[in-house]
Inverse folding.
């Protein structure tokens, strides 16, 4: 009788232990719209510092002095380069902010007309160019012409957040668990987002380009004849340092 009672107590204890463990696990989660989300921060740096694809502005600044209304050669190159990039990546109109009620406002108005002509010559439709007048809030700042347009870009961060010390302390339980610190991988993710040429590549692969059929036909023709398909160059032996192996 005693053995049966002990067995029942053991089963009851096991059931209570399982319930306590389940309650603790559910206590660390939150339910949103039928989905269970853990409150524990992710340990993978790609999840902690994800790269987001969003729309941001690309801009350049053109400084125009009071006694000069035209653009310098380097400024013309900057404006033409902006026109080329807009054709490839622009998602909205080019906004040109021209200063007014400033000492260089007359020269800026003359430079704006030249800027517009270079943008149109670079492939930007006239309807995609918008001019706005502005007055600087601080008179100490030089009133320059600003050109900007929205584009799809990849961003990550912000970096440099240190919610806990790196060394062992009572407020940093992850140190003893040998896990990555919070800022780990943030700089790499931010640099990758800045270097990617087409942010769409982060979401989906590009379509394949057609193969170069003329060269492939030559290789297949040699293969059918039983000839070597390697490409030989007339001056390839001149790069060798010795005749060893001949």
């Amino acid at each position: 009788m005693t053995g049966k009672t002990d067995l029942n107590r053991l089963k009851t204890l096991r059931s209570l232990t399982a319930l306590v463990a389940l309650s603790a696990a559910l206590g660390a989660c939150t339910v949103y719209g039928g989905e269970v989300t853990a409150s524990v921060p992710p340990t993978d740096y790609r999840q902690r510092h994800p790269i987001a694809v969003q729309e941001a502005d690309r801009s350049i600044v053109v400084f125009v002095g009071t006694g000069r209304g035209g653009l310098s050669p380097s400024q013309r190159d900057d404006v033409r380069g902006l026109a080329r990039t807009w054709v490839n990546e622009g998602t909205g109109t080019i906004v040109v902010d021209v200063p007014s009620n400033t000492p260089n406002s007359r020269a800026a108005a003359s430079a704006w007309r030249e800027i517009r002509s270079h943008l149109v010559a670079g492939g930007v439709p006239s309807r995609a160019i918008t001019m706005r007048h502005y007055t600087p809030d601080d008179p100490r700042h030089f009133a320059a012409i600003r050109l900007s347009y929205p584009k799809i870009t990849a961003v990550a961060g912000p970096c440099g957040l240190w919610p806990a010390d790196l060394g062992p302390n009572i407020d940093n339980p992850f140190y003893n668990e040998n896990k990555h610190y919070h800022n780990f991988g943030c700089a790499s993710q931010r640099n990758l987002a800045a270097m990617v040429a087409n942010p769409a590549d982060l979401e989906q692969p590009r379509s394949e380009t057609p193969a170069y059929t003329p060269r492939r036909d030559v290789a297949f023709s040699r293969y059918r004849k039983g000839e070597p398909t390697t490409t030989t160059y007339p001056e390839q032996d001149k790069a060798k340092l010795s005749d060893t192996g001949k």
